[in-house]
Each structure stands twice: as C-alpha cells, then as structure tokens.
Write a sequence for this structure.
C-alpha cells in the first residue's frame, strides 16, 4: 500500500486524564496512513524530516480535538427526537415503538446512511448504537456504517416480552438469538475492526431471563460487546421488581444472567444503590451517562461522583431520541448542568468542569469501550480519529487566528461545550480518512 501522509495544523487540545487538559496553540500533527505519528509545534514539525513534501491542511482559527465518542444512541429513533413530553415507559410506548416498528426495508435503507452522516457532521467518530428488532435493520445499519467510514459498535435490539406492543410482531428467544448470532458472525471485527457487534437485550422490562442469558453467553463466545439499559426511571425499576421477584435489585437481574462483563455498556444508571454500584465496579462493566436524555424524560440526576469513586469507567451518550440531539457538545454541557442541578440540594458537591466533560466524551468514552490504547487522545501511535472545529463560528466576535490568541485552552473547550455543534465542524477524520467535510 502506498504510504499516505497528512499534516494538520491547528490549536491541539485533548483531555487524556480526568481533570487534565493538554494543548498546543500553534500546533500540528502528522498522520501516516491511519495513525498519528508526530505531534508538536507547527514550526518544528514543518521543518522535520517527516514533513518533507507534506501538504498541510490549515483551517486558520481551528481547534483539533480527538474525535467525539457517543457510547449510547439509537439509529431508528432519530426521526422521533423532541417528540412526546412524558416519562420513559409511556414515551417508549407512544413515541418510540411506532418509529422502531417501521424501521425496516426501504425506510431503514434510506435513513441509515443519513444517520451516520449526521454523526460525522457533529464530530462524532465512534458510536455505540442500537438498531431495531429486525435483522435487516441492523444489517443495513452496518452497511451504512461501513460506507460512512465511522467506527461503529452496533447491535439488533432483542426483546421477547411485550415487544413493540402485544399485538405487534414478536421474536421468540431462539429467533432473536439466531439472528443476533448471524449478524455478529457477519459484522463483528469487519473493516479491520472498525465495525463491531453488541448483543443488545433492550432492558429487563422487555426481556425474559432466557433471552438475557442467551445474549450474555453469545457475547462471551464471540468476545463481542453487550449493551442494555439499567435503572433509568423509577417506574421502570418498580416494574422490574415485580417481574423478577427473586432478584435483590435491578442490577442483580443482569448479574444473574451473566450480562455484567468488562465489555458491557450500561445506559443511564441513575437510580442505583451502593450494592449495585459495587457489583458493576467488581464486574468492570461500563456506564454510558446520557444527561440530555435524562433531562428530556425527567429521569433523574446522575450521581457521577459516586460512580467514578467506585472506579467505574464512564462515557457519554446522546441516547437519541430521548436525547434530542446527536451533538456531543450539548451532551457535555448537559453533563455539567446535571451536577450543577444536584449542587442545589447536595452541599459540597464538586462541579463538573468543561475539560472533564471533554475527557468523558473522548478518552473516558474510549476507556469505557475498551479502546483507551487506540483512540480518545492525540498521542502519537493512536489511530487518527479527530474533529477540527472552526473557532470563528463559535466565538462571539473574533474571526481570525490572531484575534483568538487571547483564548486559553480552557476558554476554547468551554466555548465548544456551550456553543459547539455541527455548524462549527470543519472536518472529521477516522483512522486518518476524512469522513466529513463542511461544504
Ligand atoms: N429503555 C429501554 N429502551 C429504551 C430506549 O429506547 N431509550 C431510553 N432512553 N431508554 C430505554
Ligand atoms: Fe437508550
């Protein structure tokens, strides 16, 4: 293969550890094939041996961040964003199950490519995604993910209780498992590992114990991911208590089925007791914190400090369509707002800083997905998943490189968190390949 070299110039910013921001104002990085090979000052790198004959990509007043990581979102639900003003269970029944039920055939084929294009336009380079219950909904999702160039972990939703409504088509356990296995065999590890499979039992309300056990066994057999929802809403938790009387708590239902593994990503986890937190930590399972969704459905305020203190890896998720946007900057902002809201009635609570929210959306998410050594920061050797943000489109007046010189790295991160979005995404890269470019 011919050696591909690419030089990117900009204000480099990453958050390799919680609370630690790293930056290079007049920075640059060199990508060789799919990896970052050099990071430094533009003036040094441009004179380096490696940069000989290199063409530099320079967008002026631009910041270069690691690509954003969305640890929890739903492909079929995007058309239903901002719809319905109720809590989780009625919202699912009235607004979500109808759109998911229709996500098959030509409709799925039409929407899936648009969904992944939207992710790239928002600067998201890695996403962990649920499709609908149908095999084809997941298959066309993978086809679209493949074509998009994004890094995607995807799985077919599994439900055998209630499904999309009692009168709707349902999948018996054996069919659900068979279809999931087929999809996993076809897609897990495809595109040199860019695409991976997640067994996706929806949540304990719509899954039998047999289905959950089967999903856990298969995920272990194929070394694939597992994703599900846990303790998002009080009515949901009540329902699970009634359905699984023998379990000590909601988390115990998943534990008994073998669903808590180091490759498990649990959505939400708002209402957990200390036993549940300890069990998740002991199993080295991971949590996707979905604050825009939690605000939209009024689900509750995440006890981020307690979960982090227990040593659980936490990433952020847009949880579209309960979250109204794929915009991870908005998700970071909401994560900060959740802790501000808690601080009103929990004294001495530590606030979440913009640079810490950035960590959760990059290196933190990478760690939650077991990819901390591959993506999440701008270290040489990492795969080149990046987003270039046009600072002129988010700063109030400043328009050129010089006029932005007064901004500290923390200022830039805060501007992005509070005002960032697709309008400011200039380019998005995955493995050194451009997957989005602003027109
Ligand atoms: N719990 C079970 N299914 C869902 C879903 O689709 N979205 C959210 N937010 N919570 C769920
Ligand atoms: Fe969800």
């Amino acid at each position: 293969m011919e050696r591909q070299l690419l030089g990117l110039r900009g204000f480099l910013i990453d958050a390799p550890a919680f609370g630690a921001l790293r930056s290079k104002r007049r920075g640059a990085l060199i990508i060789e094939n799919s990896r970052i090979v050099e990071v430094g000052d533009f003036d040094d790198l441009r004179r380096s041996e490696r940069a000989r004959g290199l063409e530099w990509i320079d967008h002026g007043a631009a910041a270069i961040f690691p690509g954003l990581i969305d640890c929890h979102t739903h492909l079929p639900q995007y058309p239903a964003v901002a719809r319905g003003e109720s809590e989780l269970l009625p919202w699912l029944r009235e607004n979500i199950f109808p759109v998911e039920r229709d996500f098959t055939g030509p409709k799925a084929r039409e929407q899936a490519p648009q969904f992944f294009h939207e992710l790239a336009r928002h600067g998201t380079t890695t996403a962990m995604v649920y499709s609908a219950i149908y095999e084809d909904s997941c298959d066309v999702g993978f086809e679209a993910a493949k074509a998009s160039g994004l890094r995607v972990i995807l799985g077919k939703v599994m439900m055998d209780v209630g499904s999309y409504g009692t009168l709707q088509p349902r999948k018996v356990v054996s069919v659900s498992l068979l279809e999931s296995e087929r999809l996993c065999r076809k897609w897990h590890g495809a595109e040199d590992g860019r695409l991976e499979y997640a067994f996706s039992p929806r949540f304990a309300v719509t899954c039998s114990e047999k289905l959950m056990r089967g999903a856990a066994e298969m995920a272990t057999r194929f070394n694939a991911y597992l994703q599900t929802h846990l303790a998002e809403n009080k009515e949901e938790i009540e329902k699970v208590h009634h359905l699984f009387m023998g379990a000590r708590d909601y988390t115990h239902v998943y534990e008994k089925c073998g669903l808590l593994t180091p490759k498990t990503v649990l959505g939400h986890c708002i209402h957990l007791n200390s036993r549940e937190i300890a069990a998740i930590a002991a199993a080295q399972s991971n949590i996707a914190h979905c604050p825009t969704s939690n605000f939209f459905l009024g689900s509750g305020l995440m006890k981020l400090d307690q979960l982090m203190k227990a040593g659980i890896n936490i990433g952020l998720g847009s949880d579209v369509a309960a979250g109204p946007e794929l915009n991870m900057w908005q998700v970071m902002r909401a994560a900060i707002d959740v802790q501000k809201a808690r601080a009103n009635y929990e004294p001495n609570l530590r606030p979440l800083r913009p640079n810490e929210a950035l960590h959760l959306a990059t290196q933190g998410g990478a760690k939650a997905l077991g990819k901390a050594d591959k993506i999440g920061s701008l270290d040489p050797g990492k795969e080149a998943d990046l987003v270039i943000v046009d600072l002129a489109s988010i700063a109030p007046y400043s328009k050129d490189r010089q006029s932005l010189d007064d901004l500290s790295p923390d200022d830039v991160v805060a501007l992005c968190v509070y005002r960032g979005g697709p309008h400011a995404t200039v380019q998005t890269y995955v493995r050194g390949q451009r997957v989005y470019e602003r027109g």
User: Anything to note?
Assistant: The pocket of guanine (ligand 1) is lined by residues 74, 88, 92, 96, 202-203, 229, 232, 293, 319, 322 (CB under 6 Å). The chain has two domains: 5-66+376-437, 68-368.
